Automatic annotation (TrEMBL):
Source organism (scientific name): Ectocarpus siliculosus
UniProt cross-references to InterPro entries, sorted A to Z: P-loop_NTPase
Stated name of the protein: Uncharacterized protein
Amino acid sequence: MAFAKTNGWTGAVIAGCSKRQKEFQFHDPPGSIICVRHEDHRPKDDNIGKWLVSGTKVLAGHFFWDFRLMAAPPYLMVTTLRNPLELFVSALQFKHRDETRTLAGATRFVTSQMRTILGLEGLGQLGFIRVFLNDTGAVGYNPRGVYTHNETWAMAAESVEHLNTFLVVGVVEQYEGFVEVLKHTLDPGLENPSVWTTGAKVQNNKSPVSSRDVLRNIDPYLVRLYNETRLDLQWKVYEVALQLWDSRCREVLPRSDHERYCDVPRHADILD
């Protein structure tokens, strides 16, 4: 939103809002908020929502793939993914703050959740894959449903196809590099240096305990079993995201910056 404001553009954050909140709220900073329903990431009123979205220059937030159809073309898209294992832990911490405020509490809760999910029938969890599906797949997906191998692979293939349309696909594990690539891509003349300096220092993870510390405190066998049997599909899509990130980063940045800004910790490093 800072980039939009600096350029004199309209900007808004897409966010899930309560039933009592209005469609559109003004906040400065960080900018305006366009409310969407939690269950399908759509505005409470499609007509008003489309009018608000199409009239906004920069949009940010969490929303499903087909939300882009409300934007006025042409448009460019950027996104970031997080490695599935840490994302799983972080999501639990976000949704269950009271149970995960301490390392001991978070360890107990995440361990319990892993064991519970491992005991359920199913091939795995879609996680961020769901975000990149069209509305039929994204809204209709049942986290507790049982899907065939072909069905889940089709979802993964669709998400990969859509990821390939983004201008930049970044990863949280190389956030500094992501900001650097955006800077060179969107502001090649470096007309707004303060925006990028500030952006590189942003830390939105408010969990009181690091997800990596939680993982290190859990039985390694359980972590590996869960990772390999419940997150394998997400890892395959994440690997594609890593390839897209690496290619774009090395294309945009000078060779001297590749090691610092393009390299990303690998899957094995997270489990060590």
